[in-house]
Amino acid sequence: MLISNRLGYHREVPDTRDAKCREKSYPSDLPFASVIICFYNEALSALLRTVHSVLDRTPAHLLHEIILVDDNSELGENLLEMFWSELTLLRKVLVFLDSHCEVNEMWLCTLLFCGQIWMCGGRLLIIPCSRVGHIFRKRRPYGSPGGQDTMAHNSLRLAHVWMDEYKEQYFALRPELRTRNYGNITDRVELRKRLNCRSFKWYLDNIYPEMQVSGPNAKAPQPVFINRAQKRPKIIRRGRLYHLQTNKCLVAQGHPSQKGGLVVVRECDYNDQNQVWVYNEDHELVLNNLLCLDVSETRSSDPPRLMKCHGSGGSQQWTFGKNNRLYQVSVGQCMKVADPLSHKGYVAMAICDGSLPQQWHFES
């Protein structure tokens, strides 16, 4: 995150297209496009760099507008209002981009021949002359309602709507999902009928014969890799974060599963698992195996909070330094108890000075 903030909103990127792509010419009457960028808890610098890369490397006559969609971010503010004055929208084809991308030269001209999806009469094409750089996270930064496996839930709905009798192949690989509830799919099934979409067998026979599936009841081959669960970083220490001056422990102000909730110091209860922190190889501090200790990288005066672990370091990267200090790498500050004499137990970030309010001990 610190590196991203230092890069700025505009930067030159190398033209990674094949040399033959640079020789191509495009019709002058291409349709114009609306570029839609959805974001969730995105770093402001990464989001702005995505927007400005579109503005900088898209022919003005092809760009109708840029639409930013905040997908219920949990940052406690409206990011669009923060930087609306930064943008000049250039007021159709819809082009969707992730919120941490940078487009390359002539990326849009090449795309303005793509269609929809195969089974419903469209086409999904690989366009090698259209290059868009993307930042990949190590783990998903998104929450899961009620703790459910949303990836399994969505793939299960897809199988029931689109795979016809071949969904048995899917269940052969994921038998534990056969009886799982997948919600109401009536509107999706009706949409498929209304669009006169072809069968999944047609797709396998005509579009993806390389799948080599002999029939809906044939035994599914074991894939090389199945992403059954996210790999968790190795745990280095487990215990309580003990504040030496107050003799209290760092805990959630509310419930430890409350995203965006504050942390405070309270009397230590060694029978309470909600006071147990994990420190892992990614330098994350995770409370009760639920949420990570996080700080705002754009509002240094905000206190630390509990947020979904995103696995990207930055705002969730902590180290234990000299003088028992708990150092936050991204903002370059140490955590302290704001008022050691107050019963409220609020904590805050401050310039590291080795003072008593900044001294912590990880009790294993």
Automatic annotation (TrEMBL):
Entry keywords, A to Z: Disulfide bond, Glycosyltransferase, Golgi apparatus, Lectin, Manganese, Transferase
Source organism per UniProt: Pavo cristatus
SUPFAM superfamilies listed in its UniProt record: Nucleotide-diphospho-sugar transferases, Ricin B-like lectins
Protein name (record): Polypeptide N-acetylgalactosaminyltransferase
GO MF entries: carbohydrate binding; Notch binding; polypeptide N-acetylgalactosaminyltransferase activity
Membrane topology recorded in Swiss-Prot or TrEMBL: Single-pass type II membrane protein
Enzyme class (EC, first level): transferase
A cellular-component GO term for this protein: Golgi membrane
The EC number(s) this enzyme carries: 2.4.1.-
Pathway: Protein modification; protein glycosylation
Requisite cofactors: Mn(2+)
GO biological process, one term: regulation of Notch signaling pathway
Compartments, as annotated in UniProt: Golgi apparatus membrane
Domain Ricin B lectin intervals: 232-363
Pfam families: Glycos_transf_2, Ricin_B_lectin
Family: Belongs to the glycosyltransferase 2 family. GalNAc-T subfamily.
Domain of life the protein comes from: Eukaryota
